[in-house]
Lysophospholipid acyltransferase family protein
Amino acid sequence: MFYYVLKYVLLGPLLRLVFRPRIEGLERVPASGPAIIAGNHLSFSDHFLMPAVLKRRITFLAKAEYFTGPGLKGRLTAFFFRSAGQIPVDRSGKEAGQAAIREGLGVLRRGELLGIYPEGTRSHDGRLYKGKVGVAVLALTAGVPVVPCAMIGTFEAQPPGRVVPRIRPVTIRFGEPLDFSRYAGMEREKAVLRAVTDEIVYAILALSGQEYVDEYAAVVKERQTAGERVPRRTPLG
């Protein structure tokens, strides 16, 4: 219930006022039934902007750190995520990944929308990074379409480390649903999972116009923190 209070009364109107989002392709999101919305992740605001513009409720698999932060900011963040019906996911280790898959499948089996960021983390520099195969496992196991989504302008409005977003317009662009029924029963094939994930990321790339880095964002972040050279930009594929 409080999800809709946030969306239509408290948070949604404020987000529309601050970001003035331009919405493209909203009709491509299925009006009913389970589906995955797979998007790029440029800003903390993404978690709230996409739900604010969708006509249906969407549940994201959010990193557990959003629910356990210290101080007033941490409590407020946890409150917002819980109120929005988001699911905390521990991202450390293989068992944690399996738990995320189980949670995501539960959402889809209830006939709902599931939101996923295939990169697995927020982009630290505005570029699009290699996707993790969890999105493919969910799509093939549940047999649901994947709608690619591009958030455009949110990195400039609220890059990592910025608490108060800049007032500027953003675009939220939805692509045509991707059908992977041709891979039914192949959710354990590593090559298939990689191919499906890359197809999803390529669709996001086509919508967003970002530069692509064929490495995992978390790995690049670690390397840059250690002072190593920034990776070379490469085309997808």
In short: The mean pLDDT is 85.
